[in-house]
Amino acid sequence: MLTAFEEAIALLVSGDEMLTNIVLVTLRMSIASSLIALAIGMPLGTALAMGRSKIVSALVIVNRTLMGVPPVVCGLLCYLMFCGVGPLRWLQLLYTVEGMVVAQVLLITPIVAGNMESYVRGLVDDVRETARGIGLSRVRTALLLLGECRYQVFTVYLIAFGRAIAEVGAVSMVGGAIAYKTNVMTTAIMMYTNRGDFTLGIALGIILLLMFLTLNVAVSIVQRNVAR
Q1: Which of 136, 139, 165, 193 could pair with 131 as two cysteines, CB 3.0-4.6 Å apart?
Q2: Where are the domains of the chain?
Q3: In 10 A of CB 64, how many CB atoms?
Q4: Are 97 and 25 in contact (CB under 8 A)?
């Protein structure tokens, strides 16, 4: 066990080509999917928080349900859509990073929307009253709300990025964990551990832990600024 940790540290220091490729693919997929999910989920969550009709209430329930969808179900849906007999096979997204991004966006967007809805709902009444007093439109009111919870938006993005980088089920089904192409840290840890290659698995695990530590520190700093 100790030897495996020593070899993992040596692998990290050496700048191994495969290790570097896995980390870069992971970052490329996670950053792209979390940014797209934020771009879709942020206005969606704001709209859900501002709405007061029964339809909006039903959509909130649907979104909260989608927040708990198992990743493998999302991966299965994307696989069926992109495979050789699927309706979107012409896009040729199966076993590509782009296909993995699509799966991640479907998985993360409800989480972004749900968190934004929770944050904005606490501010919407006060901001709406102010907006009516100065004659702002609904769009400008929504922008004012987003400005008021800008720190929370950053926190939501960090949550989305953390969710993307930790995902296994959907990305393994859609990406196939192909070496030097679609293999990301979580799928690589699982694959190399099953092969008995604990050195690479431990090295990737250390990188993941450091990334999550960085994310948690960033979230804590943002929350501290909000509290002030």
Answers
A1: 136
A2: 2-227
A3: 15
A4: yes
For residue 227, pLDDT over 70 is answered with no
> Is the confidence at residue 2, as pLDDT, over 70?
no
What pLDDT, on the 0 to 100 scale, is given for residue 228? 60
Residue 124 has pLDDT above 80, yes or no: no
CA distance 41 to 115: 9
Handedness of CA 73, 75, 77, 80 (dihedral sign): negative
Kindly tell me if the per-residue pLDDT of 136 is higher than 80. no
CATH numeric code, 2-227: 1.10.3720.10
Question: With 0-12 CB in 10 A as exposed, 13-18 as middle and 19+ as buried, what is 166?
Answer: middle
Buried b (16+ CB within 10 A) or exposed e, 20-57: eebbebbbebbebbbbbbbebbbbbbbbbbbeeeeeee
Distance, first Cα to last Cα, the chain: 46
Burial zone of 196 (CB within 10 Å; 0-12 exposed, 13-18 middle, 19+ buried): exposed
Q: Which helix (H) or strand (E) holds 154?
A: helix 150-165
Q: CA-CA distances (angstroms) from residue 37 to 62, 66, 99, 138, 146?
A: 17, 14, 14, 23, 16
Q: For residue 228, which amino acid is it?
A: R
Q: Answer for the pair 151, 212: CB distance below 8 angstroms, yes or no.
A: no
Q: What is the pLDDT of residues 78-94, one digit of tens each?
A: 999 999 888 998 999 99
Name the pTM for this structure.
Answer: 0.88
* 213, two tokens: 């530590």
The CA distance from 219 to 222, in Å, is 5
